[in-house]
Amino acid sequence: MISTGPLILANLLSVLRMLLAPLVLWSLHREGAGQTTMVLLMAAGVTDLLDGYAARRLRQVSPAGKILDPLADKIFLGSVCSGLTAWHGFPLWLLTMQIVRDVAILAIGAQLLRTHQQVIRANLLGKASTTMMGFTIVCYLLPTPENLRLVLVVACAVLLVLSAGRYAQRWVEILRPHPPAHPA
Hints:
Blueprint: H1 9-31, H2 35-57, H3 63-88, H4 92-116, H5 124-141, H6 146-175
Helix pairs in contact: 1-2, 1-3, 2-3, 3-4, 3-5, 4-6, 5-6
């Protein structure tokens, strides 16, 4: 059973994550890696875990949720990485990679939704790149050895490229015309 009600817990948690983005930016600018910033980052992480749980386990999957959850992730991560780039030395090129990939995914997703009524679901590489970006964000907030930062940044960049490739592959599969079935 798929719930399509407008006020379901999973969707509310995704919206809450989007609303946390400006608060994290304010906190990053004001206090850097202070207690408020870390609490807000943890709260965003919890909303991400809980909206996935609510969607799957409580059967609160909705068409809106299929759009809201990844949109919330992209808005939140883009905002936090932008703040880190502006105030904490996060690599601009990595932020650019993240934004380009996410905008492409959103554009492709909107096109597929409009033309094929389909949304490309998150895949393992996409989830891994988001998780790696989370670790990379934390290493820019806490005292971290430079060589560990470099390893995380490179791993994050590789996962961004691989996940973009997987989304592109899935897009091509959806758009590829399927041959008509032959009667047996």
